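Researcher: We're teaching a course module on how sequence relates to structure. For the next exercise, students receive a sequence and then see the predicted structure as tokens, so they can try to spot secondary structure elements on their own. Here is the exercise chain.
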Amino acid sequence: MIFSPVTDLEMELIEAAVAGDAADFRNRKGPSGILLIPTIRAEVLRRLLIGLPLPVRARDPSAPLIHHPVAGSGIALQGAHILGAVNLADCQPNGGACPPLLLEDCLLLGNGSYGDPAGRPAAALDLRHARVARLSVKNCRCGFIDLTDASLMGDLDLDGLQALHDEGQCRVEAVGVRIEGTLRAPDA
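Model: And here is the predicted structure for the students to work with:
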């Protein structure tokens, strides 16, 4: 699969993850002073978490693809809309765990909304049978997170997790999940 060039915001996320910093897009304004809706493609997150190559420069189709080693602190992303499903199902890079994924104040849009509140939507975050160092979706909005048989080597933070829409619901399926740290979900 040929991966399309990353955007400037995605490159900012990549650089922050490599440096061990948070990519904070909350209250980001454009040149005209209007609030932006910062969008990150789920595939960029997936590639960073499992060590697949990404371009070295934003918006340059001729830029070479290289590995961007994520710092031990993982990916910390705040205030972004995540477009597409973050599919980490069965991921255990090099027999270990994916780096921490720490999302805060994000919208996990998945691959579309679901109209039937009783129906099961496709997962916007799919960690079935995956090994992840730590997961946080603090104050995020999402339709469905699938943690079936996942192994979390650290904490799981679901604090403030809500449905994408006020009339909708947010489902977290965690059958057989193994959490070696703590589970936080006081306001979920």
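Model: If you want an answer key for the exercise: DSSP finds two helices and 19 strands in the chain. Residues 156 and 183 are 5 Å apart (CA to CA).
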